[in-house]
């Protein structure tokens, strides 16, 4: 007889709980990227060049999130548009990239939609955690929460980066939009 397929290895994100009772419309509006924890080598090499990054969230259909990210690349403001589609459970989303095996699993780990959101991203087996704020300055209590979330997935202070709280792009021209 044929052997059974081995069980799928649990991904690090499977252990992360999504925010209970998440109301997607409460996430709508402008957010600022405050911090990110990631083992991404590009981030480590270029952390001294981090640019202020703002995000606008809309909920087009009551179950997906449309994310419009405004950030500078080489001094030019770009808008990057993405759609987070609902995954198997509330607070969990799937971001499909371009090409084979380029999907990103997304979990809204903890949020108070009036002040902060801590969101986990996993591509392949690599995980990162991002802290977004309704303002570009965040209280120490929220920073402590973020750092605790970072530690729960095995990341540490040495791979945690904070973004500038000034110099945001407010708009782009039509030639600098990536869908």
Automatic annotation (TrEMBL):
Coiled-coil region(s): none
BP terms from Gene Ontology: complement activation
The keyword Disulfide bond is annotated on this UniProt entry: yes
Transmembrane segments: none
Pfam family, one: Lipocalin
Gene Ontology MF terms in the entry: complement binding
Domain Lipocalin/cytosolic fatty-acid binding: residue ranges: 29-163
Compartments, as annotated in UniProt: Secreted
InterPro entries registered for this protein in UniProt: A1-microglobln, C8G, Calycin, Lipocalin_CS, Lipocln_cytosolic_FA-bd_dom
GO terms for cellular component: blood microparticle; extracellular exosome; membrane attack complex
Main subcellular localisation: secreted
Key words of the record: Disulfide bond, Secreted, Signal
Similarity comment: family membership: Belongs to the calycin superfamily. Lipocalin family.
Protein's name in the database: CO8G protein
């Amino acid at each position: 007889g044929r052997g059974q397929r081995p069980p799928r290895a649990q991904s690090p994100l499977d252990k992360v709980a999504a925010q209970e009772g998440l109301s997607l419309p409460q996430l709508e509006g402008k957010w600022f990227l405050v911090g990110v924890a990631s083992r991404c080598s590009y981030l480590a090499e270029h952390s001294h060049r981090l640019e202020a990054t703002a995000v606008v969230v809309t909920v087009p259909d009551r179950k997906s999130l449309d994310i419009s990210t405004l950030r500078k690349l080489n001094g030019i403001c770009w808008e990057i548009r993405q759609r987070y589609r609902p995954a198997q459970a509330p607070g969990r989303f799937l971001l499909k990239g371009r090409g084979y095996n380029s999907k990103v699993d997304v979990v809204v780990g903890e949020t108070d939609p009036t002040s902060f959101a801590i969101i986990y991203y996993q591509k392949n087996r690599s995980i990162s955690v991002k802290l977004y704020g309704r303002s570009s300055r965040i209280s120490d209590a929220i920073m402590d929460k973020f750092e605790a979330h970072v530690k729960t997935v095995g990341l540490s202070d040495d791979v945690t980066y904070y973004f500038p709280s000034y110099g945001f792009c407010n708009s782009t021209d039509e030639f600098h939009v990536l869908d």
